[in-house]
Amino acid sequence: MKEEIIIAGFGGQGVMSMGQLLAFAGMKQGKEVSWLPSYGPEQRGGTANVSVVISDSKVGSPIIDSPTTVILLNNPSFEKFEKKVVPGGNILTNGDLVNLPCKRNDISLFSIQATTIAEKLGNHRVAGMVILGAFIEKTGILSKESLVEALLHVLGKEKQHLIPVNIAALESGMEMVL
Amino acid sequence: MGKVLMKGNEVIGEAAILAGCHYFFGYPITPQSELVAYMAKRLPEVKGLFLQAESEVSAINMVYGASSAGVRVMTSSSSPGFSLKQEGISYLAAANLPAVIVNIARGGPGLGNIQPSQSDYFQVTKGGGHGDYYTPVLAPSTLQEIVDLTQEAFRIADQYRTPVILLGDGMLGQMMEPVEFLKTDNQIVIDKEWATTGTKGDGSPKTITSLDLNDVKLEERNCKLQEKYKLIRRNEIKVDTYLMEDAEMAIVAYGTVARICQSAIDRVRDEGMKIGLIRPISLWPYPTDVIASYCERLNKIVVVEMSAGQMVEDVRLSVEGKVPISFYGRTGGIIPTVEELVEQFQMHGNGVLR
Amino acid sequence: MKVVFERSKGLLNTETHYCPGCTHGIIHRLVAETLEEMDVLEQTIGVASVGCSVLSYQYFNCDMTQAAHGRAPAVATGIKRVLPKDRIVFTYQGDGDLASIGMGEIVHAAARGENITVIFVNNAIYGMTGGQMAPTSLLGQRTATSPEGRQPQTQGLPIRVSEMLATLDGASYIERVSTHDVAHVMKAKKAIRKAFLTQQEEKGFSMVEVLSTCPTNWGLNPEESLQWVKQEMVPYYPLGVYKDRQYKGEES
Ligand SMILES: Cc1ncc(C[n+]2csc(CCOP(=O)(O)OP(=O)(O)O)c2C)c(N)n1
Ligand code: SF4
């Protein structure tokens, strides 16, 4: 099994750390993983993206030409990456922020009102977790447990109080694609 | 300790500490600045020393000083800054001083850009500075390999008393992969009795210099250097191969490009093409004989680089006209995609492979 | 009366890449307006340095050359020395560029009394490379390479470049200004004009050190950044004229 994921959005939307969570969870689950950010001046204000490969076998190229899943958090990213997804692949968007029509009919599109859901849960910053929940439910590449373990690690000791709301977000996301 | 997820630049730093290097002199430059920042944070924790120099020229000379004083020491930069270190590297080589210099290369020439590139190959493998010298060059292609090769770099530096270069590029520096910090088997501890640490009253002052006004003496010095290079050529060649057992066409690539080639090779193998990869790990000394040993069976060699064609010259020297060689390169910081390489391999394999 | 927000003819009609709240943009405008008002845009050659302002050659509406990190004063020397005397040559350099790697070049350009104008943007940090310590970073200032705050014992003390260069007999006009409020921006413009006039009158080396913000790497918002310049930087880097020699060859 192999998932090649690109996550893209504005710098500051947590694109890099969403990718890091996936890579960390993959590692904890004993998979081979790689995480590669776009870097350089385009990060300043512009859009940023990260490529994550999660695989049962060794990762060759960490660069992804044809992602199996893209997670898109703004319209410019949608325009850039919609066309790159492999036929049969997934496009997950934050439907509160991406409102462009999808031109593909050979992929599965999940437009999730992640910000709305996150705000209902009381913390707009967990929107990313909602989408990651949908991602793991749809692809089955990672378990909820390993993602939670990744969260525990990334949040560190000081922010443990944020765990419950993150788990709630993850679960809401998982329900979205049932 | 188990596996941890880290950026390539940080892995170099931690691996250097694992290798017993507690001294680092650096200067910021993208895409290696994370290494400098990592050392700034980490070295004080192990009671080592981090110092930001006022320039790369100063940093390499601080390394020269620290190495003269007998410690394991490192500096790092990226292409434009690495050029500035060349003078110092020539002095280190001439004075037989061990040191590890990291180059996380980026697009050039000039200020170029900050994207990954392999266009410093000539500079690092052919001496680079003035005078007759070489520096061993190690080129990892995964982060786990960085852990090993950083330690090896320090081992080789101490064993032969030479500066050693660890060559990566922006992609390797910026990406994260799980790594485990395991010690390599060939650790050595050398008594650096040549170091200038004060005579402590032993009545025999030591000198470290690269000057010899007497021509005969300077030639002797050069001969000794060449003897050392002969030994390194004999002992320190590192190369990896992938699916070469039955290959009729070989791809030669190093560093990050080798990974992308590997993915492309997997794809064309699925179509039945007998194709494999030769991946030089030591770029100097170059695995000439290993490449030559495959010539009999090969119909074609394709060299892939993120440059306009630099390593391809060493492949030509290895093959001596026995196998046709093609080159495919991207410049300007562009990383070739798996898809474009698949196309290239199919095109070059066409007619020469069954 | 002039329309206040009209873009200076000294700047090209392109959007800059500077972060919100970064005063590089204001300093560009001051330089551009001055050159326009002096009517010398067509005989000016600027030298862009390596730092966030490296792309200034895309913004200034005059001939521009881009120099290696720290070497702008040497490049400017080459340009100035071979062209007819009426040409105006300036460098635009950050504190990492000018006061760290390029300290040799700036000192010798000043010592030679090189008839060029240097716009020295001091934001107490390396902006472009992501917030490392600069020679001008303040004591205690946290940066990527001084994570515990700059310590004098290990990382030395901040350099006051204007004061230092003013000790050189070759330097003719040196002033330090700031950008933290409108009044100071106006003063900065006067200083920049004075510096270019010094060059036009062939009086020798001129430099204006401009205290500037880097909200992105200081971790402050634009408003807090201006306050930081005023409250932290100005006390350590006092504003004022450090050298003003009226005639070529006259001792100050
Ligand atoms: C020889 C060399 N070394 C290092 C660099 C990397 N580098 C680019 S900009 C910069 C410093 C920028 O800081 P500063 O001059 O203070 O300008 P700012 O970005 O803050 O405006 C450095 C070190 C380089 N391009 N070339
Ligand atoms: S990083 Fe700092 S100096 Fe550079 S543009 Fe942004 S605010 Fe300005």
UniProtKB/TrEMBL annotation, chain A:
Domain Pyruvate/ketoisovalerate oxidoreductase catalytic: 11-175
Domain of life: Bacteria
Family matches, as InterPro entries: 2-oxoglutarate_synth_KorC, Pyrv/ketoisovalerate_OxRed_cat
Name of one Pfam family that matches: POR
Signal peptide feature range: none
Protein name: 2-oxoacid:acceptor oxidoreductase family protein
Native source species: Evansella tamaricis
Automatic annotation (TrEMBL), chain B:
Lineage: Bacteria, Bacillati, Bacillota, Bacilli, Bacillales
Ranges of residues in domain Pyruvate:ferredoxin oxidoreductase core: 247-340
Pfam families: PFOR_II, POR_N
UniProt key word Oxidoreductase: yes
Origin: domain of life: Bacteria
UniProt keywords, alphabetically: Oxidoreductase
Domain Pyruvate flavodoxin/ferredoxin oxidoreductase pyrimidine binding: 14-197
Protein name from the UniProt record: 3-methyl-2-oxobutanoate dehydrogenase subunit VorB
TrEMBL record, chain C:
Keyword annotations: Oxidoreductase
Pfam families named in the record: TPP_enzyme_C (PF02775)
Superkingdom per UniProt: Bacteria
Residue ranges of domain Thiamine pyrophosphate enzyme TPP-binding in the record: 51-210
Record carries keyword Thylakoid: no
Protein name: 2-oxoglutarate oxidoreductase
Species annotation: Evansella tamaricis
